[in-house]
Write a structure and sequence with these properties.
Two copies of one chain form a homodimer. Chain A is built from ten helices and eight strands. The first copy, chain A, is of the alpha/beta class and about 250 residues long. Chain A has two domains: about 10-160, SPOUT methyltransferase, trefoil knot domain (Alpha/beta knot), CATH 3.40.1280.10; about 180-240, no CATH class. Chain A is elongated. The model of chain A has no long low-confidence stretch (mean pLDDT about 90). At the A-B interface, α1, β5, α7 and β8 of A face α1, β5, α7 and β8 of B. β5 of chain A pairs antiparallel with β8 of chain B.
Chain lengths: ~250, ~250
């Protein structure tokens, strides 16, 4: 569940309606709903913005518009500024991931956070960065780090989203079937080996143990489910010209 | 440094030239340069594609085009498929971060990897997913997880980039100046306290130690640099109507 206590995404002087709309879409992808706009050049409720929002237009309709950055951050308690290049300023610089951790733990203590994103071509003005407590620098290829506005919003939002959920890093999706118990796998392997024996697969008694070990390893590392094993019985039986006598 | 041994970004049946171009830009943001295209509907060298690439057009010019996904993956050894929704398939599903770790360690062992991205509206066809070894599911708001093609490329590329670089999570950027030695901070605090004493700031002797402790804590947590301290001396001296007698 995403908490209502969320950081505000603050777009400072965004130039293009389409980028405001795409930023709303990126916010919704990451479960963020609070957008603030500082003196946008184009209308954030124009058809182009709403169409680019692609289902996230509610964020545009709910967005608050301010004349200055100072007004947009006035009721917030901790401000992060996103920058692509180093400024001549003494500030704490965070990766997006580190900032996401700080924002999330701030929110847990009811500290209202805002994240500033600058206009498309120039990025944030130094006077806006001064209004921030810390800087976010997204780690990207230094030879080509200019991001589309909505992509900067997406990457910061993505790191925030990752802090709020817990998803297993890796899982085997088995749908209705379950990973096979080892006993079932062993029974299947024994059946396979008997069939191979009957079909004279093991030409030399000397090499047989090694071949069997290899075969077992192949099937062992497949992480077979019950359904997989049933499928494999079918394959073997059909290849061997038998009806599906084992299940 | 980004190694030449890179995963291939494989766009399967991309529909719009602008999305191919934006994907190239996202790849370059993440230091990825090998693009493969399976039967793109629009020309990846069209003006719209090149313009959307916004400086990453070399990736488009170098991209290889294939008629089928099977041909596009033929010379690769490990394939990941990106999906937004669960399919009725028994496969290992990874977060983008977990997949990035696997791809990176695969590359370290010279295992050539490819990452499949499906067409804009429909995502990858099941027949393409079958050609993959594992699945990547980017963790996003389940109520709104449809991503623009280039944003999916960006998020996977970003996770890959993060695995290849080491950036300090948090750092204080001080430019030419250094964090002040504690001795300098102590000297400054003593100076400040003397000035405050002279200006009758501490009204009661009883409360003075507590007030001093609070003041010290304020300046202590500022992580002041040598330049900051010099600036603060200036402020105090000007407020007190003195010339800059301490440095």
């Amino acid at each position: 569940m995403i908490s209502d206590n969320q950081p505000c995404v603050i777009l400072v002087n965004p130039q293009l309606a389409v980028n405001i709309g795409m930023s709303a879409r990126a916010m919704m992808n990451c479960g963020l709903y609070q957008m603030r706009l500082v003196a946008p050049r184009e209308d954030h409720l124009s058809e182009r913005a709403v169409s680019a929002a692609s289902g996230a237009e509610k964020i545009l309709f709910d967005a608050k518009v301010y004349a200055t950055t100072a007004e947009a951050v006035a009721d917030l308690e901790k401000i992060f500024a996103t920058t692509a290049r180093r400024r001549d300023m003494i500030k704490i610089v965070n990766t997006a991931e580190a900032a996401a951790a700080k924002i999330t733990s701030g929110l847990n203590e009811n500290i209202r956070c805002g994240i500033l994103f600058g206009p498309e071509r120039t990025g944030l003005h130094n006077d806006d960065i001064v209004l921030s407590d810390e800087i976010i620098e997204i780690p990207l290829n230094p030879e080509h780090c200019s991001l589309n506005l909505s992509q900067a919003v997406l990457l910061v939002g993505y790191e925030l989203y990752k802090k709020q959920i817990s998803v297993p890093e890796t899982q085997l999706i088995t749908n209705k079937t379950k990973p096979a118990p080892k006993e079932q796998l062993a029974r299947f392997l024994a059946y396979l080996e008997t069939e191979l024996e009957e079909h004279h697969t093991f030409r030399s008694d000397e090499k047989k143990p090694h071949m069997i070990r290899n075969i077992r390893n192949i099937f062992q590392r497949m992480e077979l489910t019950e359904q997989d094993i049933s499928t494999l019985y079918g394959i073997i039986n059909h290849l061997a010209g038998k009806s599906n006598r084992h299940k």
